[in-house]
Amino acid sequence: MRVLVTGGAGFIGSHLTDALLERGDAVTVLDDLSTGLAGRLDPGVAVHRESVTDAVALTRLAERIRPEVICHLAARIDVRASVADPAADAGVNVVGTINVLEAARAVDARVVFASTGGALYGADAEIPSPEGLTPEPEAPYGTAKYCAEQYIGLYNRLYGTGHTVLRLGNVYGPRQDPAGEAGVVAIFCGRVLLGRRPTVFGDGAQTRDYVYVGDIVEAFRTAVDHGRPGVWNIGTGVPTSVLDLLELIGRTAGHAPEPLFAPARPGELQHSALDVTRATAELKWCARTSLAAGIAKTYKWAEAGEPIDAKC
Ligand SMILES: NC(=O)c1ccc[n+]([C@@H]2O[C@H](COP(=O)([O-])OP(=O)(O)OC[C@H]3O[C@@H](n4cnc5c(N)ncnc54)[C@H](O)[C@@H]3O)[C@@H](O)[C@H]2O)c1
């Protein structure tokens, strides 16, 4: 299959590109390399340094390589940056997605879109949150992702396309960007490796649905092959607290890290976990990597490289 991966030099996109190449797909990457690194990818992969905000360049590339599927992962992912500059966030995350949909329309490609589950459902959502809930995002990032989803639904109705939305939980694993929704895993691993005390904001009881990047890649591959439109939560369904996460990292490291407690950050969600019943039934997908196994892989990766020393 010919696949275009936007954001393919990013944390999740590079794992997805590796996996698609491994099964014999012809993969092209479009990435502006704002946070992505071309060095993460196999040197044989064509990386086009373009922005999804450039509609002309995007469509020209699509017309040249004629992808059957576009996996759209390019995004500004920093939730706090979206609060500081909502227009810039929407420029990439909303308008960029519209540009991807138009490029896909020009070549009759299907789009599989990386949306968010963790930043979508809001503070009062039932846990685990099913797809049917009305999203009430707490930041412009989640609003932009939801708006992009609405365009995808609109294109499916207008043009009969089979575009797909995957609402990802808090994704962690090797190559993780600390600014992402689950950046805390990379940051904690870095602090523990350096023998520094990780900072826990609030009481550490806040929970997230941490899902291993290998399971996310498997969900994308399944959605690519599934071929029908849909909106699916992609997570584990299990809420894990920050303190439990830290304890697991400590077990992997072989010593218990002593957290530094700091005041809770305003606007931070207390709880988030995704109901994955629909993905299990319709995509026959479920997360297979336990948190302990995923953390062990992430810690090993951090140990082998330059540990991230951020205050978290
Ligand atoms: N990491 C998570 O926990 C998580 C959770 C839910 C959803 N997602 C979504 O998954 C996708 C991938 O996230 P990630 O964690 O790998 O982040 P990432 O920052 O590592 O990857 C995003 C990639 O997009 C590229 N990019 C940014 N702006 C671009 C633009 N204007 N044009 C072209 N490329 C651009 C970046 O250079 C980077 O390579 C994003 O859409 C994100 O919103 C991530």
TrEMBL record:
Its EC number is 5.1.3.2. Keywords: Isomerase. It is an enzyme of class 5 (isomerase). Residues 3-235 form the NAD-dependent epimerase/dehydratase domain. InterPro entries: Epimerase_deHydtase, NAD(P)-bd_dom_sf. One of its GO terms (molecular function) is UDP-glucose 4-epimerase activity. The keyword Isomerase applies. The keyword Nucleotide-binding does not apply. It comes from the Bacteria. Pfam families: Epimerase. Belongs to the NAD(P)-dependent epimerase/dehydratase family. This is UDP-glucose 4-epimerase. It comes from Streptosporangium brasiliense.
